[in-house]
Amino acid sequence: MSTLLSVFFLFYSTPAFAPPSRERLFFFSVPCYNNGEKSGGGRSAVRSGGVRVKIKTKPLPYEQVMALPRPAHRPPRRPDPALRALVRLIAAGDLKATHFTWTDRRPEEIVGRPSLILMNHSSFIDLEMVSRIFRSEPYDVVCTSDGFVGKEGLMRAVGCIPTRKFVTDLSLVGDMRYALRDLGVHVLLYPEASYSFDGTATPLPRRLGVLLKRLAVPVVMVKTAGAFTRDPLYNCLQKRQVKVSATVRGLLTKEEIKQKSAKELDELLDRMFSFDGFAWQRDKGIRIPEPFRADGLERILYKCPHCMAEGKTLGKGTRLRCESCGAEYELDELGQLRRLNGETAFSHIPDWYAWERSEVRKELEEGRYLLDVPVEIGMLVDFKAIYMVGEGRLRHDREGFVLEGCEGKLHFERPARLNYSLYADYYWYELGDIICIGDQEIQYYCFPPAGTPVAKARLATEELYKLQKRRPRGRVGE
Questions:
Q1: 16: closest CA among 396, 424, 465, 391?
Q2: Which fold has domain 81-284?
């Protein structure tokens, strides 16, 4: 069952890869800690209770990759009924294990009518929930293009619409309108475009209100509870025993969309996509007794508030320790932090993460922020493979991203004003942390050295975008 799930929901996991010696399909896992002991990793190991996930890669010189023909645009397809039934069957195990329940509060007049479905993005189980909630209503899903690699036909048959994260996609609106109007199906969209790192909402793209007006269909919202707590991305994808639920409601009618301005619609969506998974856990008294609950916590809490060192924290078992100054915290069963050897700086993980954001903003304003690291580079130019083109260097400062590599042949720049957030992720295909940049034609997947805080790069991108918007005619710090 779990292996089949990895096939049908691959677009819902963010892929990762390593440079192979030849074209092949690899099975990967990420090293995790269980009961304080490292459980292994690398290409052949499989994490405890985990799913083996595969991705097709191909080593190819940069010049040959650039010479490859780009795929022609293809319109969305109505999802195959047999595949939809199989997806529901496969999802049944997870939904039963989490005692999944939902409440449907949609007005009767919009049930079954093609609608835009908006859903918060917490973990792998999100799409499984949708398959149960809308089991009798066909829908297409907007998903990341790299999920199509090596399986384009299957992904289109399931009803997936490819797009590139955090890149303006001029064809996406047309594809969504085609699915809604010509195919007569719902369109499911995760507007956050990536998993939450700290259990709170990630920034939504501006001008979503314009999209709503152009689509001119009812908007339905699915808001989940427990999904992040059960399977937070930082925790090595180790699942906890947590009940999961969802609430479905009609958010906007066609008439309400017409009456509101695009700005008012954006403000409404910001309010609706406001949540805090750790606060929910604490307030509901949801206990997580699993002994691995702090594994990987350094992915979020990379900076010590006591000695200000970065990249020196380590989450292992139930504790987070700074290897620089020795400050040690315990993550209790209610998801709250308590320092074991001194005064607690932050008891709430999102507060610590928000402080890190403010520190990044200070660096940007003072001109001190800089990420400059060697990377392994993969390129996505079609749906046949991720093409590994070699080594390079990724630089991120207040002007944006610059990627160079392939012995000087590759040079790509992405100005700060073009990215409101960043495609940065942990454990891509359960292998490693990545930073992905690109444009409508090419995506570059950059693997920095172990321990590089990709969360900081995401925070910097988001804060830099805000600063750029406030200083449209000058540079940050001028």
A1: 424
A2: Glycerol-3-phosphate (1)-acyltransferase (3.40.1130)
